[in-house]
Amino acid sequence: MEEELRYKLKYTYGEDFGTGYFKYGPISLGEAPRIIQSRGLILRDLPESVKMLIPPEVVKRGIVVGDDVSRYLSSTRDMMRNLRYPLHDGIIKKEDEDSWRVVKELTRFGLSSFYEQAVNSGDFRGFLVVMSLSALSPDYMRERFIDIHMEINQEYQGKMIRALTAIDQPFAVAISEKAVTCMVVEAGHGNIQVVPISYGPIRDGIVALNRGGAETNAITREILKDAGYSDLAKDEYVVEMVKREAGLVPKDLGTAIRSAREDPKRFSIKIKVNPLVTVELSESAWTRFLIGEVLFDPTHDEFKSYVQQGRFSIEDVTMGDMVFYGEMNMADAIISSVRKTPVEVQDKIVSNIILSGGAFNWRAPPALSDVAVNSVDKVRIMIGDKVPDLLNRLNIRMVKDPQYSVWKGAIVYGYALPLSVEWNDKAKEGWIIPR
Ligand code: ADP
Ligand code: MG
Question: How many whole angstroms separate alpha carbon 40 and alpha carbon 272?
Answer without folding.
Answer: 29
